[in-house]
């Protein structure tokens, strides 16, 4: 499909915004100024001030000398980009691809959009009149290329819509500044008497490159469409997205559920055909008052099972606040993975983690209670007990090493080893008794020591000498002494776990 | 005539078991737990899978002993490559230790859930999932209604559930098929030999629906259960009224 672009130019972007914020300023000439090397330099002027010869780059004091009642306001750094972004987001209603073109413009990729508003001129008129009614001074143009649309929006005098293929003809009478050239190039062209694009467009390309650099050729090609120009959309378009606009605003939970069900069905049908499944999905509800409510889900395994995905969303539907009503539902799937086609089990004997039933159960649990609730552990190459296992990143992750079974390990461990009072006879012998939580345990049997060195490259401290001890009741504990035996000190014995 | 009557009675007894939700294992070959003497106490003479078992523990030591015994049972249930989910409010279980009980720790999914109410919800959801081999839930307090829900879930899905109740405030009647209490016993190694020896527990089956409660000494050795002198230790608790059947 042939590309069409619309460029919107905000001639007095920041001053218009100040005028909207302070309506008393509208009838006065005013400028925005910022401090620059100790002087106040004008950064933006409004239409009234411009009519009287004030322009950006003047020192504020000089401008005051020209107009006595000139208002000088402090400029806000970054305001223009912020405003353009906000307006650009608003423009997404006209085209999904809207890009900011600093310092004072927007570019929309309107390919295949205009007919929805009854043709290109009606489309452009709608945008301009909507923006004008908000209080912005705008000019807009539409052409096959970003460069031509940009040029016509700012310098065009005849028509704002350039027919497909007519860009060369359209830019001929325009000044060189319409090509988005740098200031030195423009000055050189001016010096040589090249006041219009017509004057140099037919010149041999090597001559142009030699005199004005590569940039002028690039801009010329971009305007004519021989070089493709890529714009950076404000909101990237998700490849897996479904939209459902509503005739009447939706207010009830039932309505939301129906919308979600419908969107899920369409997106899942599409994914099924492509052999993919959803790993994460976002359900967005665009409200009448401009706010967006959204709920998100994640799955442990790619899934395109509508009823399962609906169940995951269902838990959070009540958090959606429809307030004045929802006019548009959007379902996005930012993370999509290849789904392994399920083989129909002829009989179900052994169960495993790859089973859809299990993954769907885990999805429900994480959906309701949070993603960090579920952990699966894999062995890790560490002797230090706390690091001897690690959490698996996904359900499919396989263990790379074996679990060690050569040493006894307790089935229950304390989150943090707790100090115990111990009577130990001689170095490296297990203790005779210990006191834990006020109860004295006399040790009858013991195993050990098992020395585990501190991993000095990970943390500092002393090694541990572990003992597996059994008291007179047969209860088995995992005790350790931190560091070497020192005789007098008794407070560096700890209890770490309980054996089965 | 008496032989005929016996036949009828045994058939009726079997029918009653099915009506009460205790079905023989699917496919005809029950899971082998290696608990021969203990299994005689169960209805049909085999460990009731597809039911919820309750385990009471009073301290950290008995909780560890219970964990070991349950891990041994899980190992049998997960033998065919099955997965298990272990739910609780805190994560005190040490995954590498499960390997010693014959479980692949990576096939156990742990869920550490803050609120006990949510643990109950998750346990019910998990018990409804027929693809799991077993579900373990560490729940301190559970009401009769909640336990009924769990029981109904397993009757549908035939998943085995283990309810580990650590220091419950009161040991109330709940709709579980059995109530166990596992406490540690001193290891039985010869005098003069060093070391601690293999784990040994005093397994008390306090309550079992349609079975006979009893007490056994069970050890874990060489990757399987070992019953230690069951004849000498068995005490029949049939006469005690407080352990009567729940339903």
Provide structural commentary.
The complex is a heterodimer of chains A (500) and B (247). In chain A, the strands form 5 sheets. In chain A, strands 14-15-16-17-18-19 form a 6-stranded antiparallel barrel. Chain A has a 4-stranded antiparallel sheet with strand order 5-6-1-7, sandwiched between helices. A 4-stranded antiparallel sheet of chain A has the order 8-11-9-10, covered by helices on one side. Chain A is elongated, with a radius of gyration of 36 Å. The longest helix of chain A has 22 residues. Chain A folds into 3 domains: 237 residues, Alpha-Beta Plaits, CATH 3.30.70.270; 98 residues, DNA polymerase, Y-family, little finger domain (Dna Ligase, domain 1), CATH 3.30.1490.100; 87 residues, no CATH class. Chain A is built from 14 helices and 19 strands. Chain A starts with a strand and ends with a strand. Chain A has 500 residues and is α+β, with helices and mostly antiparallel strands. In chain A, a hairpin with a 4-residue loop joins strand 17 and strand 18. By secondary structure, chain B is α/β, with parallel strands linked by helices. Chain B has a single domain, classed as Rossmann fold. In chain B, strands 3-2-4-5-1-6-7-8-9 form a 9-stranded mixed sheet, sandwiched between helices. In chain B, helix 6 links the parallel strand 4 and strand 5. The longest helix of chain B has 18 residues. Chain B starts with a helix and ends in a 14-residue tail after the last helix. The C terminus of chain B is likely disordered. At the A-B interface, helix 14, strand 12, strand 14, strand 16 and strand 17 of A face helix 3, helix 4, strand 3 and helix 5 of B.
What tags apply to this protein structure?
heterodimer; A: 500 residues; alpha+beta; Alpha-Beta Plaits; Dna Ligase, domain 1; 3 domains; four-stranded antiparallel β-sheet; 29% helix; B: 247 residues; alpha/beta; Rossmann fold; 7 helices; globular; disordered C terminus
């Amino acid at each position: 499909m042939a590309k069409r672009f619309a460029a919107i130019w905000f001639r007095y972007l920041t001053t218009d915004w100040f005028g909207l914020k302070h309506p008393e300023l509208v009838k006065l000439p005013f400028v925005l100024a910022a401090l620059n090397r100790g002087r106040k330099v004008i950064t933006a002027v409004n239409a009234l001030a411009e009519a009287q010869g004030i322009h950006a780059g003047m020192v504020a004091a000089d401008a005051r000398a020209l107009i006595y009642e000139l208002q000088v306001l402090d400029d806000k750094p970054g305001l223009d980009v912020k405003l353009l972004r906000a307006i650009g987001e608003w423009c997404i209603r006209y085209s999904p691809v809207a890009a900011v073109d600093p310092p004072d413009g927007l570019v929309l990729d309107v390919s295949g959009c205009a007919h929805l508003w009854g043709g290109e001129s009606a489309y452009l008129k709608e945008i301009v009149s909507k923006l004008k009614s908000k209080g912005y001074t705008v000019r807009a143009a539409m052409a096959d290329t970003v460069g031509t649309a940009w040029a016509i929006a700012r310098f065009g005098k005849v028509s704002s819509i350039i027919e497909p293929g007519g860009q060369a003809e359209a830019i001929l009478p325009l000044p060189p500044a319409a090509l988005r050239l740098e200031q030195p190039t423009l000055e050189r062209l001016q010096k040589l008497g090249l006041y219009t694009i017509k004057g140099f467009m037919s010149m041999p390309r090597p001559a142009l490159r030699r005199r004005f650099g590569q940039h002028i050729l690039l801009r010329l090609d971009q305007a004519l469409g021989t070089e493709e120009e890529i714009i950076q959309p404000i909101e990237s378009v998700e490849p897996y997205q479904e939209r459902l606009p509503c005739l009447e605003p939706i207010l009830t939970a039932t309505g939301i559920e129906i919308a979600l069900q419908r969107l899920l069905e369409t997106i899942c049908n599409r994914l099924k055909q492509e052999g993919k499944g959803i790993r994460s999905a976002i359900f967005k509800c665009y409200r009448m008052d401009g706010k967006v409510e959204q709920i998100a889900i994640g799955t442990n395994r790619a899934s395109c099972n509508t009823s399962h995905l609906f169940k995951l969303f269902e838990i959070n539907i009540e958090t959606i606040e429809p307030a004045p009503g929802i006019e548009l539902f959007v379902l996005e799937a930012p993370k999509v993975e290849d789904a392994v086609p399920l083989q129909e089990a002829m009989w179900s004997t052994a169960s495993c983690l790859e089973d859809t039933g299990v993954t769907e159960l885990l999805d429900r649990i994480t959906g309701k209670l949070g993603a960090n609730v579920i952990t699966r552990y894999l062995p890790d190459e560490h002797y230090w007990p706390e690091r001897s296992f690690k959490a698996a990143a996904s359900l499919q992750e396989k263990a790379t090493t074996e679990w060690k079974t050569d040493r006894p390990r307790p089935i229950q461990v304390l989150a943090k080893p707790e100090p115990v009072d111990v009577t130990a006879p001689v170095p490296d012998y297990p203790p005779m008794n210990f006191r834990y939580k006020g109860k004295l345990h006399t040790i009858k049997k013991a195993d050990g020591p098992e020395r585990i060195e501190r991993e000095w490259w990970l943390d500092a401290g002393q090694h541990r000498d572990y003992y597996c001890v059994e008291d007179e009741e047969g209860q088995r504990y995992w005790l350790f002494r931190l560091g070497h035996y020192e005789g007098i000190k008794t407070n560096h014995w700890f209890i770490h776990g309980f054996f089965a | 005539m008496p032989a005929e009557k016996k036949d009828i009675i045994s058939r009726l007894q079997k029918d009653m078991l099915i009506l009460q939700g205790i079905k023989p294992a699917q496919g005809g070959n029950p899971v082998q737990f290696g608990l021969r003497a203990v299994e005689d106490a169960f209805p049909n003479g085999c460990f009731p899978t597809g039911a919820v078992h309750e385990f009471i523990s009073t301290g950290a030591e008995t909780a560890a002993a219970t964990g070991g015994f349950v891990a041994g049972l899980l190992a049998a249930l997960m033998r065919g490559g099955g997965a298990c989910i272990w739910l609780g409010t805190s994560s005190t279980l040490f995954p590498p230790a499960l390997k010693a009980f014959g479980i692949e720790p990576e096939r156990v999914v742990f869920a550490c859930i803050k609120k006990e109410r949510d643990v109950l919800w998750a346990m019910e959801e998990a018990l409804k999932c027929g693809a799991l081999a077993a579900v373990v839930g560490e729940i301190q307090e559970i009401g009769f209604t909640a336990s009924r829900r769990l029981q109904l879930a397993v009757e549908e899905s035939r998943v085995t559930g283990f309810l580990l109740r650590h220091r419950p405030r009161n040991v109330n009647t709940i709709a579980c098929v059995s109530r166990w209490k596992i406490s540690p016993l001193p290891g039985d190694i010869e005098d003069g030999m060093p070391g601690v020896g293999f784990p040994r527990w005093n397994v008390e089956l306090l309550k079992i629906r349609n079975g006979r409660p009893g007490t056994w000494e069970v050890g874990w050795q060489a990757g399987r259960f070992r019953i230690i002198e069951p004849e000498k230790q068995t005490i029949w608790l049939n006469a005690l009224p407080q352990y009567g059947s729940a339903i």
